[in-house]
Structure formats: C-alpha cells, structure tokens
C-alpha cells in the first residue's frame, strides 16, 4: 500500500513539475518575436473589443505565439491598455513592443481606406481600385507587377510564384496571384507595401491548400491559370466550378482547345462584366497566345485573380464524360454536353448572340 502511495505521490510531483515547466516555457516563449524576419501588417482593434478577443486575434493573425500566456504577461507587467484603431505592426517585434504599440493612440493610423478586390478582377481593375483609395497611380502598380527584378527579390517567400510567371507572353507577372479580398490600405502606403499585403493573403490561401496543390497533376502556374478561367466561367459556385474544371481537364487530356470565351475577352482587353461579352463570343479567331480557341493547352498565365472557390474547384475537379458546356445568359443555367452535336444543339437553343 505504501509503495502505491509513494508511486502516486511521485507521479503527482512529476506531473506538477511538467506543468510548471510547460507553463514556464510558454511564458518565456510568448515574449519572443514570432519571426526573425521583418514582416509588416495592419492590425485592427475595434471599439469595445475585450482584451481576450484582442489577444485571440493577435494569435490568429500570427503576431503572438499564445493568447493566454500573452494576456498573463500583460497582467503581471501591468501593461496592455489597448486603444481602438488601425495599427501597423511587425512580426519581428517582441511581445512588449507589440502590446505597447497597440496601447498608444498616437500609433493608430489614420487615412486607412477599405479596398475591395473582387474575384475575377484583372490586374488593371485592382490597380484602378487601389489608386482610387490611395496616393498610388495605376501605372505605378501595373509597372511593379511586371517588374521581374523586384518580383524575384521577394519570390522566395511566396512558393506559388514560380519561374513560369516570367514568360515573355504574360501581360503582368503577378496577374492571378493578387488574392481577392477586402483590404485596409493607408493612403500613403507604397506600391510594394500594398502588393505584399495581397501576396500575403495569397500565401495564406496557398498554405491552407498546400497538400492539394502538391497532389494536383497540374503545376502551380497551371492551377492558377485554369482557376482563373474557371473563375470567369462559374463565379463563386463551387459545385458548378468543379464540373467545369473537370471538363477543361478532359479537353486538355483529349488534346482539344479549351475554347473559353473568357480568354478571348482577356486577349482583346474586353471587359465582359460591362456587357461586352458578345464581342468575346464572336471574335474567336483573334490572334493572341491567350486565345484558347486558336491555341491548344492553357494560356501563358492567369487571365484574372481567381478566388479561393475557383482554386478549390480546380484542385478538386468533378470527374464526368462532358467535353462541352455553355451558359444561358438570361437564366444563368449551365448546359453540359458529351458531344459536339449535343453542344451545338444547346447553343442554338440557349445562346442569344443577336
């Protein structure tokens, strides 16, 4: 009996020491920067947000290791009177610097504007949206997005930016990789700064689906390129997008042209969203490496910024025997076909080109 008692006492002591060791390690670790490399980002504290919520958000955004230990540290050192506002912070800061910055109203940024980048936006659309809310010029942004030297200087951080984005026929090297989202940009932010914020968002999406990217039969550039076409053809409908992605893959395997009018829109610089879609449908012979009616395989690069849903569709395509599809522009309904004859029948019945 005494042996059992000694054993349980010993076990309790070991567990207690382990708990203290873990707690001590966590408390020390949380004080350190999460990164040795400078990485600036905007952190937002809303009015009336509780400290608990703020610390959780800091952890979610990768700015601290552990919300609970960080809050404990702040209580012990009697710091952390957070202020509402937008703050520019850095992942290379230690915990004390971060907390003190978020507690200083003078450090809260003014002039932050929300910029919405919609799924399917072209690079020029993004440049226009950013220029409207900042001091940046559209031409400045577009010039940066095809600046090979600058892109190569940051390429290592973003594994989805492969050498394929530097093809001479590609209009903008970063076309397709500037993740759609609603961003908060300071009016004085640099072109490099806003671009890195968007690429960071793309990196987050890539990391969340990294295993799927690795399992795909397509290269990284091919996934983004096909996703951009699927984005145009299916929008935010994942179920429809999976079927359409599967159809395009079937056509690639059969050595057939993809035949997507969205690629013609991009080749002609015609914005289908503004009601000019008919011009894309009737100009399938336009000479361009982006024209997927005249050229087999995928275009040189993405034709827009695909949203996460379009990427998921390409990474998880639906297997079918379909080789053709078309939309009824009035109802939005999609008609699928296994043969060209079936497809032509659908076109005749449901596509109004008048």
UniProtKB/TrEMBL annotation:
Catalytic activity: a peptidoglycan chain = a peptidoglycan chain with N-acetyl-1,6-anhydromuramyl-[peptide] at the reducing end + a peptidoglycan chain with N-acetylglucosamine at the non-reducing end
Keyword field contains Transmembrane helix: yes
InterPro entries cross-referenced by the UniProt entry: MLTG-like (IPR003770)
Family matches, as Pfam families: YceG
GO CC term, one of those recorded: plasma membrane
Gene Ontology biological process terms, A to Z: cell wall organization; peptidoglycan biosynthetic process
Main EC class the enzyme belongs to: lyase
Alphabetized UniProt keyword annotations: Cell membrane, Cell wall biogenesis/degradation, Lyase, Membrane, Transmembrane, Transmembrane helix
GO molecular function, one term: lytic endotransglycosylase activity
EC nos: 4.2.2.29
Keyword field contains Kinase: no
UniProt-annotated site: Important for catalytic activity, residues: 233
Similarity field: Belongs to the transglycosylase MltG family.
Record function comment: Functions as a peptidoglycan terminase that cleaves nascent peptidoglycan strands endolytically to terminate their elongation.
Protein name, entry field: Endolytic murein transglycosylase
Species of the source: Bulleidia extructa W1219
Gene field: mltG
């Amino acid at each position: 009996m005494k042996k059992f008692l000694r054993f349980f006492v010993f076990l309790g002591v070991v567990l207690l020491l382990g708990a203290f060791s873990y707690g001590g390690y966590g408390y020390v670790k949380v004080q350190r920067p999460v990164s040795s490399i400078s990485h600036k980002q905007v952190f937002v504290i809303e009015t009336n947000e509780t400290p608990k919520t703020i610390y959780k958000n800091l952890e979610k955004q990768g700015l601290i290791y552990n919300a609970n230990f960080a809050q404990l540290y702040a209580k012990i050192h009697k710091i952390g009177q957070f202020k509402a506002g937008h703050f520019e912070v850095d992942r290379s800061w230690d915990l004390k610097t971060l907390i003190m910055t978020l507690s200083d109203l003078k450090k809260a940024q003014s002039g932050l504007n929300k910029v919405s980048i919609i799924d399917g936006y072209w690079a020029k659309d993004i440049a226009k949206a950013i220029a409207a809310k900042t001091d940046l010029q559209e031409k400045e942004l577009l010039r940066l997005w095809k600046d090979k030297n600058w892109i190569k200087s940051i390429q290592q951080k973003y594994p989805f930016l492969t050498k394929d984005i530097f093809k001479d026929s590609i209009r903008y090297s970063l076309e397709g990789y500037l993740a759609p989202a609603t961003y908060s940009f300071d009016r004085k932010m640099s072109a490099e700064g806003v671009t890195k914020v968007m690429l960071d968002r793309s990196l987050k999406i890539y990391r969340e689906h990294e295993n799927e990217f690795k399992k795909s039969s397509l290269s990284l550039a091919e996934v983004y390129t096909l996703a951009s076409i699927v984005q145009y053809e299916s929008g935010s409908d994942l179920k429809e997008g999976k079927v359409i992605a599967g159809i395009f893959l079937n056509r690639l395997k059969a050595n057939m042209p993809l035949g997507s009018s969205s690629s013609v829109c991009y080749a002609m610089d015609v914005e289908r969203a503004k009601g000019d879609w008919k011009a894309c449908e009737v100009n399938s012979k336009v000479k361009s490496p982006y024209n997927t009616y005249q050229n087999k395989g995928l275009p040189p690069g993405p034709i827009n910024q695909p949203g996460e849903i379009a990427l998921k569709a390409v990474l998880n395509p639906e297997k079918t025997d379909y080789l053709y599809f078309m939309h009824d522009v009035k109802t939005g309904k999609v008609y699928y076909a296994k043969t060209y004859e079936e497809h032509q029948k659908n076109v005749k019945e449901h596509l109004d080109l008048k």
